[in-house]
Design goal:
Number of domains: 1
Shape: globular
Strand content: 15-25%
Radius of gyration: 17 Å
Structural class: alpha/beta
CATH topology: Rossmann fold
CATH superfamily: Alpha/Beta hydrolase fold, catalytic domain
Strand order of the largest sheet: 1-10-9-8-5-7-4-3
Length: 244
């Protein structure tokens, strides 16, 4: 069954800005220790009950951007008091290629669950969102298999990486399209460790499948709301062809 709804909307909904300082925000919390970029910011909700949480993965071609810049709809919901927000930093492609980025994002979800009681979070209501590269990471986390390792000595690794829903904004979903649709941006190749301009047919089919969220669609996936503009020149609208 197709559980995905696609909306063609203006990208202005995701125009970000630096979030206003809040007294209770916890910044630069390490969720792993392999690299200095594996940190997150936690914006608590103003409620006594365990709160739903939205996890934000920023864009920037998997090579730039910052967790400091939250979209307005998240800062507004957090300021209203009912939603907790987590903004995640992850390793860029100049540090490590795919799957480092999705592994970091999955680890952040697991770390969040490990701290759910302390942070007053409802771990059954965890959503993910982000734009462009962050849209890709959001869709990937929603669709990939659970990364939990029940027998691990690391208590974080024993936690589930699954989420309840995702709202990816203009995220690429299918690297197979590189062979049929023009993709000028070098980030698509760099994410897989290739030089910019590498012909698509010279790229590993296995790598292209593994980086594509579309490749992991299954019947047990959570709902996904896709927001994308049909005039997008960086991420062609063809990436939102179908999730069935």
């Amino acid at each position: 069954m197709n559980k995905t709804i696609t909306f063609i909307l203006s990208a202005s909904l995701l125009i970000g800005h630096t979030a206003n300082a809040q007294d209770k925000v916890r910044r630069d919390i390490a969720y792993d220790d392999a690299h200095a970029s594996q940190i997150l910011d936690f914006y608590p909700a103003k409620t006594d009950k365990p709160a739903p949480v939205m996890v934000f993965f920023h864009g920037g071609g998997w090579r730039g951007g910052s967790k400091k810049h939250l979209p307005r709809f998240l800062t507004k919901a957090n300021a209203d008091g009912w939603l907790a927000v987590v903004s995640v930093e992850y390793r860029f492609t100049d540090v490590a290629p795919h799957p480092a980025q999705v592994d970091d994002c999955a680890r952040a979800i697991q770390f969040l669950r490990q701290n759910a009681k302390e942070w007053n979070i409802d771990q059954d209501r965890i959503g993910v969102t982000g734009g462009s590269a962050g849209g890709h990471l959001s869709a990937y986390i929603a669709l990939q298999d659970d990364e939990a390792k029940p027998k691990s000595k690391d208590p974080v690794e024993r936690q589930s990486s699954r989420v309840s829903f995702a709202i990816p904004f203009a995220g690429p979903t299918d690297w197979g399209l590189l062979s049929t649709v023009k993709h000028d941006h070098p980030a698509y190749r760099q994410l897989l460790g290739y030089e910019p301009g590498t012909p698509a047919d010279e790229m590993s089919p296995e790598k292209k499948n593994d980086v594509s969220p579309l490749h992991f669609v299954s019947s047990d996936d959570p709902p996904i709301l896709i927001v994308h503009g049909d005039a997008d020149k960086i991420v062609p609208i063809e990436h939102q062809g179908t999730y069935t």
